[in-house]
């Protein structure tokens, strides 16, 4: 599930309403039949729909335009025109739609939920509606109303069981590729994953949980430096947080405190989540160094050691995550 797309912009257009009919009855035995024009049909809506089987916005990445059908015109015998067919945009749960001004149109919270993004134009009224005592045979009807159009921005806050929190180069991508089938790009540099990666982690007895490698935090992210809020937004929806501190860090506990502070600055509620502290790249340190690193942390925040490269400690880490999720 790599190449996770969390932002898509699409030009949407709902259908125009059909015109009302200005028909007058013309029947053999009713020489002066009155108006019998039907109403036009409503234009098709553009609708966002929650789909629990979608994990990413990737299917929409190359969609530039979405257009719903127009309503059919009204007809004689007071026949209402058919409604234009609605267009559905299937999105993962957790997707937010915004207009061009950045205002939220709606947020998908559950499977099957529908939100109308753009309403189809109303159908015009047929001439039957305009009959009066002074105008027995109105020869006019309303045109249909235009549909709406404009850009809609779709954003997805990742829905994952475990969110990986750490500076760039903390080993998050390596961990994800070690415990799941995700294939994130991995490199040894102090930059960051620009798009989040999701992986399904297999656990004992055919169980599994979802792990998200989200863009790496940079000190000052809460003030908008680096990827800033775009990163922090993702971790709001993770059930638990897994802090990754690399074994070759200069100060392990200090690095944890910096990460913790970023979350505190952005949204203090994030610190109410359960979390696990881990030391990645533990193949780089021996037993004596591990004791020294562990001693930096208070008793209630002792870290777990693992290596995504050798696989050492991964099962213990998965056990700890599972216990936090289901304990």
Automatic annotation (TrEMBL):
EC number assigned by the record: 3.6.5.-
Quaternary state and interactors: Monomer.
Gene: obg
Positions contributing to GTP binding: 166-173, 191-195, 213-216, 280-283, 307-309
General function of this protein: An essential GTPase which binds GTP, GDP and possibly (p)ppGpp with moderate affinity, with high nucleotide exchange rates and a fairly low GTP hydrolysis rate. Plays a role in control of the cell cycle, stress response, ribosome biogenesis and in those bacteria that undergo differentiation, in morphogenesis control.
One matching Pfam family: MMR_HSR1
Family: Belongs to the TRAFAC class OBG-HflX-like GTPase superfamily. OBG GTPase family.
GO MF annotation: an example: ribosome binding
Binding residue positions for Mg(2+): 173, 193
Keyword Magnesium in annotation: yes
Annotated InterPro entries: G_OBG, GTP-bd, GTP-bd_Obg/CgtA, GTP1-OBG_CS, GTP1_OBG_dom, GTP1_OBG_dom_sf, OBG_GTPase, P-loop_NTPase
Name this protein carries in UniProt: GTPase Obg
Names of the cofactor(s): Mg(2+)
């Amino acid at each position: 599930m790599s190449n996770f797309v969390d932002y898509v912009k699409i030009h949407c257009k709902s259908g125009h309403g059909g015109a009302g009919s200005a028909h007058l009855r013309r029947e053999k035995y009713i020489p002066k039949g009155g108006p019998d024009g039907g109403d036009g049909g409503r234009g098709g809506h553009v609708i966002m729909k929650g789909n629990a089987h979608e994990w990413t916005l990737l299917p929409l990445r190359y969609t530039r335009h979405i257009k719903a059908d127009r309503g059919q015109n009204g007809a004689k015998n007071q026949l209402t025109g058919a409604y234009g067919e609605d267009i559905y945009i299937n999105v993962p749960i957790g997707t937010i739609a915004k207009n061009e001004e950045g205002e939220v149109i709606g947020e998908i919270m559950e499977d099957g939920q529908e939100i109308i993004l753009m309403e189809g134009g109303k159908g015009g009224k047929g001439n039957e509606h305009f009959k009066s005592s002074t105008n027995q045979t109105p020869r006019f009807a309303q045109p249909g109303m235009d549909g709406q159009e404009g850009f809609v921005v779709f954003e997805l806050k990742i829905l994952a069981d475990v969110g990986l929190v750490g500076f760039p180069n903390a080993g998050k991508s390596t961990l994800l590729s070690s415990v799941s089938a995700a294939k994130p790009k991995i490199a040894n540099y102090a930059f960051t994953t620009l798009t989040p990666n999701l992986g399904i982690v297999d656990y004992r007895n055919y169980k599994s949980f979802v792990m998200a490698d989200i863009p790496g935090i940079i000190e000052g992210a809460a003030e908008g430096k680096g990827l800033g809020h775009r990163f922090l937004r993702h971790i709001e929806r993770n059930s638990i947080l897994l802090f990754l501190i690399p074994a070759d860090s200069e100060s392990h506990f200090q690095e944890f405190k910096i990460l913790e502070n970023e979350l505190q600055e952005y949204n203090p509620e994030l610190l109410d989540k359960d979390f696990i502290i881990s030391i990645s790249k533990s193949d780089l340190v021996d037993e004596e160094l591990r004791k020294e690193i562990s001693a930096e942390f208070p008793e209630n925040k002792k870290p777990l050691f693992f290596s995504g490269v050798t696989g050492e400690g991964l099962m213990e880490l998965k056990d700890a995550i599972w216990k936090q999720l289901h304990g």
